[in-house]
Specification:
There is one protein chain. The chain has 119 residues and is mainly alpha-helical. It contains 7 helices and 2 strands; from the N terminus they run αβααβαααα. It has a two-stranded antiparallel ribbon.
Length: 119
Amino acid sequence: MTLLKLSERHTGKTHTIQYYHIFPKSLLRDPKFGYDKKEINEIANLAFIGGKTNRQILNKEPVVYLEKEVTEKKGEDALKLQLIPLERNLWEIANFREFLGWRRKAIADEINNFMQKLE
């Protein structure tokens, strides 16, 4: 996560903002987990990141890349900005549904807070 702000003006593969499945589709599609396409592709499983970061993460498990690529390099604030829980157990594939529930609420709360500021 590069901390780039959303903008139409970013250019080049390194800075183009892309959406990324926090829990990669390729891992969640494994039949042993039983996650369906709707869950895998819902907005609570998406984050906006730079193209370079997207290529670095590929299909690593969140429990691995959120610690090594995000927390260690950029700190927990990078996770907070993306509304990603700090509880590491929620980064495990077996806890994907709990992660979705946590993040749905976080996104809804953030939208509600933003709307209240407009009133």
